[in-house]
Amino acid sequence: MRLCATPTPRIIETRSSVHNAGNPPCGTGVPRYGTVTTGVCGTRRSGVWPILTMTGLSAAEGESVGEGSVQVLDRAFDILEALAQAQGPMGLSDLAQTTGMSKTTVFRIAGTMLKRGYVEKTLEGRYTIGPKMFHTLGYHINSLELQTEAKPYLTALKRSLGLTAHLGILDGAYVSYIEKEASDWGEEAYTQVGYRSPAYCSSMGKCLLACLSRAELEEALYGFEFKAHTPNTFTRKDEFVKYLHQVRAQGWAMDDEEYEIGHRCVAAPVFNYRGDAIAAVGVSGTPDSISDDRIDDISRQVMLAASRLSERMGYVE
Fold first, then answer.
1. Do the domain assignments include residue 84?
2. Which residues of the chain have a pLDDT value below 70?
3. Is the overall model pTM greater than 0.70, yes or no?
4. What letter would DSSP give residue 266?
5. Same domain, 92 and 176
6. Do 229 and 260 contact (CB within 8 A), yes or no?
């Protein structure tokens, strides 16, 4: 499912005369650092920074600290590095000899990694790198590629519209900001990359939620409280879902001072080669800088930037 085809106006590279002093993005929330879970049309992909959780180990093995690091993690990485550098699958004795651990220790740590998918066993019982490692690295690489490809389009929007431009991804019922080009007129520090805000009162979040199927949307919003941050915030789920139909039809979404009074935002979705909505491009400003008479022009330029970024990510109409 995707939004309707977007028009193709040209992004003007000249700087707008409209000043945009201190405008935060489309709703900012409490920062959350660490693992980022992205939603791709309802599919949650976790693990930008993978954390190996070691279970089934004794306190001595799991908590021993040496040279400022947790020893069991050092040993787990030793096993991964040995498998990565090997010419083929390795047996238990080979792994123990290469890493300098006992076979019992290798067996227990590799067993946990096997359960998590970071290591797998061949039919002969030998160990090799598991599919989870490649999947996790793939998500991280794709995220880096998306941010790198988005940068020039965010810069063009900032220069053309005089607004702060953002790139965001869906994180359940929230949207996480992963890239930003601040306007030249200043921006509050709390708009830094890494912040999350409720998707239902964020223009980027609305775009991405509008791309979900009914079942996926129900899952994303299950148990979510539609809290009134301002008098303009959606507080009823049925009214919000109705608005998502409008977003899907027009190809862009707006945050009309719904998270914070004095801030407006406009955003459009970005698709990958499979047609999945993987991110959203948005701009934020004051009601004066995103005035009603500018909405048509701003939405066209934002949709064009999102469309061109989608092409860079392999999307074909």
1. yes
2. 1-69, 138-144, 185-191
3. no
4. E
5. no
6. yes
